[in-house]
From TrEMBL:
Pfam families: Mg_trans_NIPA. It comes from Cannabis sativa. Keywords: Cell membrane, Endosome, Ion transport, Magnesium, Membrane, Transmembrane, Transmembrane helix, Transport. The chain crosses the membrane at residues 22-41, 98-119, 125-144, 151-171, 191-213, 220-242, 254-275, 287-307. GO terms for molecular function: magnesium ion transmembrane transporter activity. It is found in: Cell membrane; Early endosome. One of its GO terms (cellular component) is early endosome. Residues 367-377 have a biased composition (Basic and acidic residues). This is Probable magnesium transporter.
Length: 377
């Protein structure tokens, strides 16, 4: 009798995931797989291009010689430079089909990630971005023969445990019938105050702190990316809902709010990617990735809680459990990145600036999708 009552109370406490949450979960997991795999495929393409032609970087040290801002960019820890990084031929990887397969795979992953926000709350979708690290680490171990340290395996396990915890206790997606409802949520005083605070902080960082400390303090660039990224995810979610409703037969393209959210997405993503590239161009990828993931995900969850009131539909126990899951994912992420160089027998992870890397491929820390891509969305 007691067993029956206990089972019944458990079912009452956990009613299962809604169909929308399940769709969002499947899309988010698919996105993690495609984006995680894309980095490995692109790396294989870069290595193949380097073996048959000119590598993406030409100088002996494997790093950009130019001090001119914007003269090169970094992709998976590899310098892709213009004129001053070794003359002609620095783009031979563009003629490598395998590299393009990696790019297409990443685009497919980003589309799946975009669609996931239309079905599931950001508090469920965003933290699952850490799973792309596991995919990349495992595939790098299998395909690229990169040794995975025992503590790296523990980091992967922590990411899985944390992700599972969040999935099992994530709030149900809020029922929305029109993009105007999302606009009304965005116009509430609490979220307007948050948005104003974010914009103000980002402008202060851009115009005051970046000129002074951008080249020496990693938190300056990452702060701009994370702040703007939290707004971009909210706008992407609104745009995703509008497209979902439109495809289901309720045209949302006639509303000006849809196009307003679109403009916000474009502006925020361009800003986010600009300063993220600056961070990656200045500091070690293995340092940028976990810090950016922590700040971006934390601010995105905060923005979602304020705008969509995710926690209003949950008990304190569920909220605390979700936070424990998130902290577990963070621990796994930092552990995996921290031990990446240990597996390579290098101590370069203790140095923050990217120019401490010893070769053109850097420490090959596996980047998170939210930063090299539109994972924010």
């Amino acid at each position: 009798m007691e067993t029956t009552q206990s089972s019944s109370s458990w079912r009452d406490a956990y009613k299962g995931m809604s169909s929308d949450n399940i769709k969002g979960l499947v899309l988010a997991l698919s996105s993690s797989f495609f984006i995680g795999a894309s980095f490995i495929v692109k790396k294989k393409g870069l290595k193949k291009a380097g073996a048959s032609g000119v590598r993406a970087v030409r100088n002996e040290m494997g790093i950009c010689d130019s001090e001119e801002e914007g003269n090169g960019k970094w992709d998976l820890g590899i310098c892709i430079c213009r004129s001053s990084c070794g003359g002609v031929g620095g783009y031979s990887y563009l003629y490598e089909p395998l590299w393009w397969v990696g790019m297409i795979t990443m685009i497919v992953g980003e589309i799946a990630n975009f669609a996931a926000y239309a079905f599931a709350p950001a508090i469920l979708v965003t933290p699952l971005g850490a799973l792309s690290i596991i995919i990349s680490a495992v595939l790098a171990h299998i395909i690229l023969r990169e040794k995975l340290h025992i503590f790296g395996i523990l980091g992967c396990a922590l990411c899985v445990v944390g992700s599972t915890t969040i999935v099992l206790h994530a709030p149900q997606e809020r029922g929305i019938d029109s993009v105007t409802e999302v606009w009304d949520l965005a116009m509430e005083p609490a979220f307007l105050f948050y948005a104003a605070l974010v914009v103000t902080a980002a402008l202060v960082l851009v115009f005051h702190f970046i000129p002074l400390y951008g080249q020496t303090h990693i938190m300056v660039y990452i702060g701009v990316c994370s702040l703007v990224g939290s707004l971009s995810v909210m706008s992407v979610k609104a745009l995703g809902i509008a497209l979902k409703l439109t495809l289901s037969g309720t045209n949302q393209l006639i509303y000006p709010q849809t196009w307003a959210f679109t403009l916000v997405v474009v502006f925020c993503v361009i800003t986010q990617m600009n300063y993220l590239n600056k961070a990656l161009d200045t500091f070690n990828t293995a340092v940028v990735s976990p810090i950016y993931y922590t700040m971006f995900t934390s601010l995105t969850i905060l923005a979602s809680v304020i705008m969509f009131k995710d926690w209003d539909r949950q008990s304190p126990t569920q909220v605390i459990t979700e936070m424990c899951g998130f902290v577990t994912i963070l621990s796994g992420t930092f552990l995996l990145h921290k031990t990446k160089d240990m597996a390579d027998g290098s101590s370069s992870s203790t140095r923050m600036h990217k120019y401490s890397e010893e070769d053109g491929f850097g420490p090959e820390g596996i980047p998170l999708r939210r930063q090299e891509s539109m994972r924010s969305p």
